[in-house]
C-alpha cells in the first residue's frame, strides 16, 4: 500500500477501471476529466504480488480533524478481501483523523460494516434522483479531546441571554418540530446541506428536555460563510453567533416570522468530532434505558440547582457545566476503547 501520482497512471488499465467504477464517467473525455480532478488529490493504492494496482482511494484533507475520500474502488476480482476497509483504516491511523465520504445505496452497507456514523445527505447533482448518505469513520481519540485553541466566540445577530432554565417532560411534537426546521434548511441549502440531524435531548424519546430543538447541520466548509449564511438568512433564520476556534462552529436560530419551534441550529464541518459525539451520544441514549434514566435525573438536578441559585437570571452554559461530568464519563465509556 503506497501513494502514487495519478498522472503516471493515465494509461494504466487497472487504474482506468477503478476510476470508472468509482465515478461512472460516460466517455473518454469524462474519464480524462476525472484524472485531471484526481491530480489535485492524494491517491493511496493497494498492489497485488505483481505490483499491479487493485484498489484505490483518492482523498483530500478537509480540515484539521477529518479527511474526505472522494473516490474508493476495488477491482471486481479482488473484492471481499478487506482492501477497501484497509484503505479507510490506514488513512484514519496515518493522519489521526476521521475519514468521511458520501455514497448511495449500493455502498452504504460497506460503510456501515466498518463502523461509520451515517446520516442521510442531500442529493448530489452528479447522480440526480439517487439517495445519498454522509458516512464518517470516527477517530476515537478525537472524540475524547477538545480543541486547545481559543473558541473566539463572536456575537453576530444574537447575544447570550439569561432566564429560567426549565426542563419539561417529553413532548410528542418534538419530532415534527425538527422535521419542519429540517425542511426549511434543506430547501434553503440544497446540496450544500451534507447532513441535517435532530440531536440533543429532544431527539431521544422518553427523555425530558429544555423545550428547544437542537439541530446539527453539516456543510462542506463552515468557515466559508458566503456559501450558506445568505441562504439561511433568506429563509428567516438568525445568525446568532460563531466560534471559529471550536470546530468552526456557527449557530442559528429560527426567526419569529418563520413560525418554527424554538431551536439551536449548530453548524459544523463534515467529520467534526462534536457532530460525531452528538450522534453517538444520542443513539446510545435511544437504546440504553439505564443511562437514559440516569441522564434524565442529572438534567433535572442541574436545572433545579440553577433555578435555586440564579432563578430567572440563569445561563444555559452553567446548566451545561453541571451536566458535564456525567457526559464526559459516558463519553469515556463509549469512546475509550
From TrEMBL:
It holds the Pfam family GrpB. Gene3D superfamilies: 3.40.630.30, Beta Polymerase, domain 2. InterPro entries: Acyl_CoA_acyltransferase (IPR016181), GNAT_dom (IPR000182), GrpB/CoaE (IPR007344), NT_sf (IPR043519). One of its GO terms (molecular function) is acyltransferase activity, transferring groups other than amino-acyl groups. Residues 4-138 form the N-acetyltransferase domain. This is N-acetyltransferase domain-containing protein. It comes from Glutamicibacter uratoxydans (Arthrobacter uratoxydans). The lineage of its organism: Bacteria, Bacillati, Actinomycetota, Actinomycetes, Micrococcales.
